[in-house]
Amino acid sequence: MDKKFPEGFLWGGAVAANQCEGAYNEDGKGLSIQDVMPHGIAAPRTEEPTEDNMKLKGIDFYHRYPEDIRLFAEMGFKVFRTSIAWSRIFPHGDEEQPNEKGLAFYDKLFAECHKYGIEPLVTLSHYETPLHLAKQYDGWTSRKLIGFYENYVRTVFARYRDTVKYWLTFNEINSVLHEPFMSGGIYTDKEKLSKQDLYQAIHHELIASALATKIGHEMMPDAQIGCMVLSMPTYPLTPSPDDMIAVMQAEHMNYFFGDVHVRGMYPGYIKRYFHENGIRINMEPGDEEILKNTVDFVSFSYYMSVCETADPAKKKKGRGNLMGGVPNPYLKASEWGWQIDPQGIRYVLNMFWDRWQKPLFIVENGLGAVDELIDDGMGGKTVDDGYRIDYLNDHLLQVREAIADGVDIMGYTTWGCIDLVSASTAELKKRYGFIYVDRNDDGTGTFARYKKKSFDWYRKVIASRGEILEG
Ligand code: BG6
Q1: How many angstroms separate the alpha carbon of residue 74 from the centre of ligand 1?
Q2: What is the per-residue pLDDT across 16-41, written as a single tens digit (0 to 9) for each?
Q3: Taking the domains of the chain in order of start, what are their residue ranges?
Q4: Which terminus of the chain is more exposed, N or C, with fewer CB under 10 A?
Q5: 424 CA closest ligand 1 atom index
Q6: 246, 309 in Cβ contact below 8 A?
Q7: What is the CA(425)–ligand 1 centre distance, in A?
């Protein structure tokens, strides 16, 4: 087996605007839903932004991005995934005219990437719906959001058509099933939201995503537009056929999103689910045609796998990336209870490829851990994060296996290539980066950047095209 990853493989790292930029109200930016989520999904939202919300300042990427991009370039990044904060461009989301200062910021950011030959990979909507759209329209439950999103994507496509080639429509679009406020800007309490309203909101997002793909292809013939799903492979807890069917049904709930994006229509199993749950999607004339604008590639996050069972007595829910699931007795977990399963990434790559035959892009993978800043023995500071190196090494070895299995993989961006604020808990102490940021959950810290041990390791991985991976 070839130890080197293919030539042209896009190595890099990923962040999202709301988790790193800070500057939450600078240069005309409006509020986003994140500004009222001081503890992520771990505690109720607030009415107004509060000082304990670490995302208001983030890691100050808005002001320090030139230094950060330079460090990414030093690691040899070929690609950098970030998102555009919708509320920088349209502060309320429903204006007709964009905020020029917001647009200018991303001009500078993308130019900085290109200075080092780094290709930006841009998520159009990464858990940062303008707050006004959530409050005024109940987020994606309203069909009006399609028009506002269309105006936004037309604006950014027109502005960045020559600087951005890779686009993702919605981050982890399937997570709206579990976190309707964070993922879909839906203000109605999760407990009160009916399945009817939730799936109608999903329909609006799917239409918006297909429309963005259509418009993107028209405006930027050379661009590649992908969907983005949260992957969490599901294993049967036992070999019982009942457990296997429970797995199939759980997987369908997630595959549904990719199936619509890739096949351009609603699959039979979801129609059955709608029928049995009294859900009637309100389709407008033309919707079915719009859905036929299918994506060029499928991107996904992968952190962990879960189990599923049909036995209610064994159905206890473990912790995990937004969805969670039944814990697997064979796996160990991270400090945040996310079960670590490197082989799961090979499995998911094969399943997606077999199902969709579309190029795949791993746009999130990484380990959230508590890091300790120590003296590096040369007058500076570092973090001895061998645990992170092990995690990434083991996952990349499985990506290499998937390539050998014949899966078409465009690239790999580690999540949180620089420490940032967690999405689920809004903590800074849950660190993912190759670069340590001196910023703490009590609001202390200088925002100074320090290279961790994993920084040099990843640089060598990229330089050797994966040849130095061990195992
Ligand atoms: C994904 C999100 O769910 O997982 C990211 O797309 C998020 O925004 C990442 O940060 C890791 O999750 P967390 O909760 O540890 O930040």
Answers
A1: 25
A2: 999 999 999 999 999 999 999 999 99
A3: 10-463
A4: N
A5: 14
A6: yes
A7: 9
156-184 burial: b if 16+ Cβ within 10 Å, else e: bbebbeebbbbbbbbbbbbbbbbbbbbbb
Are 338 and 320 contacting, i.e. CB atoms less than 8 angstroms apart?
yes
Residue 316 has pLDDT above 90, yes or no: no
Which amino acids bring their CB within 6 angstroms of ligand 1?
A: 16, 19, 127, 171-172, 230, 301, 321-322, 364, 368, 415, 422-424, 430
For domain 10-463, the CATH class is alpha beta
Q: How confident is the model at residue 1 (pLDDT cuts 50, 70, 90)?
A: confident
The backbone region for 75, taken as left when phi is positive above 0, alpha when psi lies in -120 to 50, beta otherwise, is alpha
What DSSP string runs through 10-69?
EEEEE--HHHH---TTSTT---BGGGG-TTTTSS---SS--TT-GGGTTT-HHHHHHHHH
User: Closest residue (by CA) to atom 10 of ligand 1?
Assistant: 423
Output the CA–CA distances (angstroms, integers) from residue 73 to 142, 374, 414, 470, in the order listed: 41, 24, 14, 24
